[in-house]
Amino acid sequence: MKHSSQASASQAQRPGPNGHAPAPAETVIHVPDKRLRSYDKVAPGEPTATLQQTGPGTNGEPLAYVHVPKDAPKGGRQTRPAFTLTGPDGQPLTSVRSLGHGVYEVYGADGAPLGRITRRSGRTLPWPRRVRWSVQPAHGGVPLTGEVGTRTAWTVFVLISPLYFLCWAVMAAQGSLWLLLGEKGEAKKEAAWEMEPPTWTRWRAADEPEPAIEYRTGRKYRLAANRLDHWLACAQAVLHVWDRA
């Protein structure tokens, strides 16, 4: 199995005897790869995606690698295929298995359960509901929930959507014109712009104002120490990125 030869992530991020990783007051991880959706095209033995540690004193060192079997079936947003996280030196860290209907079991390196992650789909009718993620740590830990996007952001998104579709239609027409003229590069520029739906997600306990995990943009996640098992939080980050891939 090929891995980068860069220095491994700090010892503060490595799992302890029970799969729990002590961490600094706050850890920021970045999932820069966009290959989760196309895992079947990744060469055998190569990681599907990489988790990097970012922030002061770090240089984007690999924290963990995501591996999805090349022959895994396409399951959709409610049934992602099983995947594993390994460390920079190849040691197993976490495994994730889908139970179907948006429910995932997460296990530590020793096979012991770390917790359960659940995705509840959003909907518009009969009343609006945002996509909701929940993380239930094993052995009675405090559950966390996070809804994708704020109510204000979604309201603004819905209000300006008609203007976006009008702009998109104009740009699509311009792109078609560039294609007729043989200018594929200009046509791609016209098609590159898109309006993304709200993404800000904060996972927190019902009685705590501060989040244990926070996502704003750029596939970067802030993980608070001692609020949630580190690798359970990383598994949630991978599933969240995959959901938006």
Verbal overview:
This protein is of the alpha+beta class. Helices cover 22% and strands 27% of the residues. It has a 12-stranded antiparallel β-sheet, with helices on one face. Helix 1 (151-180) packs antiparallel against helix 2 (184-192). The two termini are 25 Å apart. Residues 1-23 have low confidence and may be disordered.
- Oligomer state equals single chain
Count the DSSP helices.
Answer: 3
- Quickly give the structural class: alpha+beta
Helix content range: 10-25%
Termini, distance in Å? 25 Å
Could you tell me the strand content as a percent range? 25-35%
Described by strand count, sense and barrel closure, the largest sheet is: 12 strands, antiparallel
Radius of gyration: 20 Å
- Which whole number gives the mean pLDDT? 81
- The coarse silhouette is globular
Could you name the ranges where pLDDT drops below 50 across 5 or more consecutive residues? 1-23
Number of strands: 12
- SSE string: EEEEEEEEEHHEEEH
- Adjacency order of strands in the biggest sheet: 9-8-7-6-5-4-3-2-1-12-11-10
What structural keywords apply?
twelve-stranded antiparallel β-sheet, 245 residues, disordered N terminus
